[in-house]
């Protein structure tokens, strides 16, 4: 279940906070005129010093090293960077919408404003992944791809992998074309009529459930799904659709802790 620790930080109780530091941020900030955004990309001339302050505040909240923070160049792909102990630095995070690592003390942040954000964590193998799944990434099964990397590269048992799916646009607010709905339907290979609902202009899609079903297909069943809609809940989260592209970004920040 998801819960707010503060107005700025939300967590899932599916994870053990003693071994995985994680937060899902919100937009709420009484001090910053731009809110608690982690990106200035769609804010025009926003002073980037506020964004850096927000990112540092998130790192300070989790007590992780801001100077080591990794933020990939998200491009709505299905590309995932795997950063293990022997990965050569500097890390190539261009055109990257997921990061998987088993390195403790290495904080990773991904940014969102309607798209679906996921944390995958295997407490047995001590591996963490953070994934950005918009409709394009979901159509290419990026979450499922991440789960298979856990299994194939880190020898994870799917039954051990825990997943939290954060706030994202809900089915009632996410209308797509028939072609996009068809592409998404092909990824779940079954009769899931409740995932799609027809409207006069298109089809409304439950993108969170599509990602959950993709994970179920490879044996990952332990999934916590946040019920917050970023479009309906635009006062709490950023929404690209609701705000016509002029908005900030909330984030997922995660970091593996040293095991005692």
Quick structural gist:
The protein is of the alpha+beta class. The protein is 20% helix and 24% strand.
Keywords:
single chain; 260 residues; alpha+beta; five-stranded antiparallel sheet; 5 helices; 24% strand; globular
Explain what this protein looks like in three dimensions.
With 260 residues, the chain is α+β, with helices and mostly antiparallel strands. The protein is 20% helix and 24% strand. The chain is built from 5 helices and 14 strands. The protein has helices at 48-62, 135-139, 142-154, 178-185, 207-216, and strands spanning 2-4, 9-12, 20-25, 81-83, 98-101, 108-112, 116-122, 127-133, 162-165, 175-176, 196-198, 203-205, 222-225, 250-256. The chain has a 6-stranded mixed sheet with strand order 4-5-8-7-9-13. It has a 5-stranded antiparallel sheet with strand order 1-2-3-14-6, covered by helices on one side. Helix 3 (142-154) runs parallel beside helix 5 (207-216). The longest helix has 15 residues, at 48-62. It starts with a strand and ends with a strand. The model has no long low-confidence stretch (mean pLDDT 94).
């Amino acid at each position: 279940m998801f819960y707010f620790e503060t107005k700025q930080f939300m967590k899932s109780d599916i994870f053990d906070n003693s071994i995985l530091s994680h937060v899902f941020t919100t937009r709420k900030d009484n001090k910053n005129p731009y809110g608690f955004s982690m990106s200035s990309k769609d804010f025009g001339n926003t002073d980037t010093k506020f964004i850096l302050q927000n990112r540092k505040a998130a790192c300070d909240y989790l007590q992780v090293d801001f100077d080591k923070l990794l933020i990939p160049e998200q491009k709505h792909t299905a590309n995932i960077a795997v950063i293990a102990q022997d990965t050569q630095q500097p890390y190539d995070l261009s055109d990257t919408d997921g990061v998987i690592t088993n390195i403790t003390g290495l904080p990773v942040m991904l940014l969102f404003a309607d798209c679906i954000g996921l944390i995958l964590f295997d407490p047995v193998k001590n591996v963490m992944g953070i994934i950005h799944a918009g409709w394009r990434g979901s159509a290419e099964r990026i979450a499922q791809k991440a789960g298979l990397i856990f299994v194939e590269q880190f020898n994870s048992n799917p039954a051990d992998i825990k997943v939290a799916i954060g706030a994202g646009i809900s089915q009632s607010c996410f209308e797509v074309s028939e072609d996009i709905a068809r592409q998404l339907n092909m990824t779940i290979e079954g009769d899931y009529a409740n995932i799609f609902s027809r409207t006069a202009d298109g089809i409304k899609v439950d993108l969170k459930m599509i990602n959950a079903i993709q994970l179920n297909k490879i044996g990952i069943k332990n999934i916590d799904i946040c019920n917050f809609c970023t479009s309906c809940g635009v006062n709490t989260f950023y929404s690209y659709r609701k705000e016509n592209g002029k908005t900030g970004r909330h984030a997922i920040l995660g970091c593996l802790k040293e095991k005692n």
